[in-house]
Amino acid sequence: MTNNNILDVLTYMFDYLFEVAEQDSSQEIDDTALKAHLSDAGFEITRIDKALSWLENIATLQDGETQPFGSANGSMRIYSEAEKLKLDTKSRGFLLFMENIGQIDANQREMIIDQIMSLGDSTISLDDLKWVVMMILGNSDDEEVSPQWLESIMFLDDNHTVQ
């Protein structure tokens, strides 16, 4: 299996971890075992390491000690040309929608954009963006975010209706 996408590694990893958790919720998987499983599935070690570093970056951004993306409430986000190339109109609209309905704040939006920009892909699909949103919100300390709601993000239709 040749995988050139960090999100492919992350998606496969989350599927695997959810599957293991469903079978035995007390079982913990250490990094070595997880890396071995991902390698056995055909992912390159460099991609696995980049995916795990990508996740660690989310945790670092969300530790609450720093707010590197300070934004004033009610401010307007102007996307750079590089961001516009990576995030198409639908993806930018989805982020605006999520912010307008109060599901992400300006700081979380900036974390999402930063994480998207750190991916090696030239463009990101709306489905991939939804995965990134889900990963960032799923790693947040916000107790109001339910697993069912996170899953519903993946099934938003083009009209952006939340279940």
Write the layout of secondary structure elements.
Elements: H1 6-23, H2 31-40, H3 45-61, H4 81-86, H5 89-100, H6 106-118, H7 126-138, H8 147-153
Keywords:
8 helices, mainly alpha, globular, single chain, 163 residues, 2 domains
In words, what does this structure look like?
It comes from Bathymodiolus thermophilus thioautotrophic gill symbiont. Belongs to the Smg family. This is Protein Smg homolog. InterPro entries: Smg. This protein is 59% helix and 0% strand. It is mainly alpha-helical. The protein has 2 domains: 1-61; 71-163. The radius of gyration is 16 Å and the shape is globular.
Which blocks of ≥5 consecutive residues have pLDDT under 50?
A: none
Largest sheet: none
Kindly provide the radius of gyration, computed on alpha-carbon positions and rounded to a whole number of angstroms.
16 Å
- H and E string: HHHHHHHH
Global structural class: mainly alpha
Total number of helical segments? Answer: 8
For the record, give the distance between the C-alpha atoms at the N and C termini, rounded to a whole number: 35 Å
Family: Belongs to the Smg family.
Organism: Bathymodiolus thermophilus thioautotrophic gill symbiont
InterPro entries: Smg
Pfam families: DUF494
